[in-house]
Amino acid sequence: MLTAMDFSLTETERDLVELCRDFATKEIATRAPLAWEEARCDTALLREMGQLGLLGMLIPEEWGGIGMSTVGFVAAMEQIGLADQSLAAAWQAHVTIGSLPLYLFGNDMQRERWLRPLVAGEIRSCFSMTEPETAGSNPLLLETTAVEDGNDFVINGQKWFTSSADGADFAIVMAVTDPDAPPYSRTSMILVPTDTEGFNLVRNVSVMGHAGSGHASHGEVIYQGCRVPTTNLLGPRGGGFT
Description:
alpha+beta; 4-stranded antiparallel sheet
């Protein structure tokens, strides 16, 4: 028996949607045209959204977020998108793939170090999975590797369409840690600060309709002997597709 999905919002969620509508109308819509003209992401707007609590919509209050439902988040995103699709894309990436892996799979130490400042808008993240040759439509074919060397992972590979790579403080990297394991157990998520030696943002690729994101959602990144501690493993080893 099929049951209808409930799309109703709580009173708190309706208030947050109204907050997004007000901010989008007064701030985003008036400032977005200049960002489009200069082909850059207005990171000041993202920081201001963090101050309003809008960067942690899907993160529970205990980690500094709001704990909004997915339906409420989509309703809020509609308001941001009406003002500027580019900023909405950057904001959506921050709230979802940039933050949720840390909440869902991180330990408390990782959440304190990375998640809280993400939610507050103090730092930015990027998600590094897609690759130019094989791992676009099929991420099981990832070729980027993370080889354990003592207490470190050494990462090598090339990534494409790395969400919000330009200006990010760290990347969540999908890399093969166990090449001989079954397909769904080969890959792990690893936190890589973008100032790590061997993290190379090669270029940002221009994509139609996203000039106001500074093309930041479409970065080409090369990892070349990029060494990070094994404690930067996010979730279980081999659990990249958990």
